[in-house]
Amino acid sequence: MTGSPIVALHGVAKRYGTVEAVRDVSLSAAAGECVALVGHNGAGKTTLMKLMLGLLHPTRGSVRVLGSDPDAGAFAVRRRIGFLPETIAFNPALTATEMLRFYARLKREPMRVVAPLLDRVGLAAAADRRIGTYSKGMRQRLGLAQALLGEPALLLLDEPTTGLDPALRGQLYGLIRDLVRGGATVLISTHALGELEGVADRVVILDRGVVLADGSLGALRRLARLPIRVRVKVAGAQAEAPAWLRESGEAFNGHHFDLTCTPAGKMALLRRAVESGAAIDDIEVAEPTLDDLYAHFLRAGDAR
């Protein structure tokens, strides 16, 4: 990815009286990149998004979005940003079509985009129903449709899967992958860490307004150096397993052994298992999950 970043924050702080919600945050996001902001409530995720939208002004530092200061309020920049807030409030008396047409007029988009957008988020059949009859998940999908108006270059999603069932969450993340492949920049704030694997190019871990870690899942795993879990299934009884496995693994369930290894030692362990031939029936390798990494970096932050 080349060119200027779509989002660039340098030494950003935001204070509310005596409370510093964001402290010395520097991060960037390039075109065609999906970045996840993860952290507990109060970590600073929503504050950062509001700074990118120009809804808040930093106490210190600089914020640039699409090359401009979002606080300046330039319409040409703002119309290229899509935003899905955590809490959505639509007029319950309007239909989805009427509501999306209203937002289309605000963004100066043609009315012909409304129906295809509602179809894209799975609301075509309910397009002319009043929003007051919608479920929470349907309102969330309508919020996503308004965020996608104008094919934004930057899409900010604050807890986007709230109220969505597993099938709809999968559709949402499939849509995000399509947008990123098309060159859009997507920033996601979420508590559902397991959903981000395979979606986010980078993860920014925040705690009390401070960036604890920033990198790809692979880079965070290398940095954390957490143990890898390996489950080995033996072909016969546990007593017939190779001696090295009985000595180094924890036996359970009659035919299995659980082991751990360092990232550097993973290949050596797998080669040893393969060399055992028919004695080994199956091997499962579990890398540290994003939940594991998140807990690790929080502990490391508390220890500072």
TrEMBL record:
InterPro entries: AAA+_ATPase, ABC_transporter-like_ATP-bd, ABC_transporter-like_CS, P-loop_NTPase. Residues 7-233 form the ABC transporter domain. It comes from the Bacteria. It holds the Pfam family ABC_tran. SMART domains: AAA. Keywords: ATP-binding, Nucleotide-binding, Transport. GO terms for molecular function: ATP binding; ATP hydrolysis activity. Belongs to the ABC transporter superfamily. This is ABC transporter ATP-binding protein. It comes from Rhodoplanes elegans.
